[in-house]
Write a structure and sequence with these properties.
CATH superfamily of the largest domain: HAD superfamily/HAD-like
CATH architecture of the largest domain: 3-Layer(aba) Sandwich
Helix content: 25-40%
Structural class: alpha/beta
Radius of gyration: 19 Å
Largest sheet: 6 strands, parallel
CATH class of the largest domain: Alpha Beta
Number of strands: 8
CATH topology of the largest domain: Rossmann fold
């Protein structure tokens, strides 16, 4: 799809499963926890943790029962480790071309400030964005319209886009606000799988893409 960008264009993005696969964050956290709990057997422990996760079992409860550690401490390790994650293919090229054409970039994401900012910094993209809205910081989560109004207030423009992946919460508010919305189709690795058979039209993005290779910035 073609997107015409100039100085009056703002393109905002969701973070998890939109700029990168969130499963990478989970794997990164599991490796950090395994290194901390059992450095001599960290790979074996990581393998077991991920297998339990794939089976839908409570990984942290398993660790608490077998490694003399509190669940709350495991959650802290998960949320506060330094993640090793990578952007989807072509994301950086799209972001840099938007900036080159004079457009402005933003992020609207749910989560904790420390965790989400660590992800953004690990991806190496923080400096590209003129505004980053994180739900914990403003006290509301998507689809609350306040999260998107924060972008309009910070980055005045005539045209706004939002790129996300979650039909339940990503698109309904920007659609109502007159934004153009783009949905990234699950590549098979999204951490939250959804089936939306009878979703109302206002929740749907205006268009769907399989990858960032389909976006052409003009």
């Amino acid at each position: 799809m073609d997107i015409k960008v100039n100085k009056d264009t703002v393109i905002a993005f969701d973070l998890d499963d939109t700029l990168y696969n969130e499963i990478e964050y989970l794997k990164s956290a599991y490796r950090a926890i395994a290194d901390d709990l059992d450095p001599a057997n960290n790979k074996f422990l990581y393998r077991n943790m991920f297998a339990l996760y794939r089976k839908g079992e409570n990984v942290f409860q398993y660790l608490a029962e077998n490694y003399n550690v509190e669940v709350k401490d495991l959650i802290d390790l998960y949320r506060n480790h330094n993640p090793k994650i990578h952007l989807f293919n072509n994301v950086l090229e799209v972001l840099e071309t938007i900036k080159l054409k004079g457009g402005k970039l933003a992020i609207v994401t749910d989560g904790r400030v420390k965790t989400q900012m660590a992800k953004i910094e690990a991806l190496g993209i923080k400096e590209l964005f003129g505004k980053i809205v994180i739900s914990e910081a403003i006290g509301t989560e998507k689809p609350n319209q306040l999260n998107f109004e924060a972008i309009e207030n910070a980055l005045p423009a005539s045209t706004y886009y939002y790129v996300g992946d979650n039909i339940t919460k990503d698109f309904v508010s920007p659609n109502k606000m007159g934004w153009k919305t783009i949905g990234l189709i699950d590549n098979g690795l999204n951490i939250h799988c959804e089936v939306n058979e009878n979703v109302q039209e206002e929740y749907l993005p205006h268009c769907l893409i399989n990858s960032y290779q389909e976006i052409n910035i003009l």
